[in-house]
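User: Structure please.
Assistant: Input sequence and predicted structure:
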Amino acid sequence: MKIELTLNLFGKSIFVPDTIVNVWIVVILLLILGVIVNKKVKKSNIDEKPSNFLNVIELSVEAVENLVKQTMGPKHIRFAPYIFSLMAFLLFANLFGMLGFTPPTSDYSVTFTLALITFTLTQFYGLKNNGLFGYLKGFTEPMAFLTPLNVIGELANPISLSFRLFGNILSGVIIMGLVYQAVGVFAPIIAPPLHAYFDMFSGVLQTFIFAMLTMIFIGGNLD
């Protein structure tokens, strides 16, 4: 299922691909979910047993907080809300293919934007915690002649991070498209287990990997 838009602004036609439309759908769904969770939390009674829905939310929040503590350190728990939001977006986006939509993360512009956020946070905290001199000095370690390689390696991080997510999700979309064309009427029988791997398993795995690498990159410049 593809939802594509063409916007006419200032006399020019701007084509919006379905992946970008799906980004906004995912964001809207997450905002609605956030409002629902907020209302349920406010209405809940601390003396009463929480609903299954709130139990799942609480376990998810605790799992992400523990992951941040283990990866970045207990004193950097302030990053838990961002990592939780990042993982929630990636999980919804990666699993969007199971609903018949094109996953937003199969568009490189989406994954590269997320990687740029990680890269920006990494450089920001590198400058903030080390100062300009210490930040620049870090590129000369362990030996000064390795400076060009260190700079290239730092610039390569967002590219490798974005391509890893983009490539895995796009490959699943392509493979499933080929499967549907090949098996025809037998798709309802053959496709479900493949969806379980390429959409569900791969989607969850790539969400975890992207979040872990984000925490490692940012955490490396915090202490």
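The chain has six helices and two strands.
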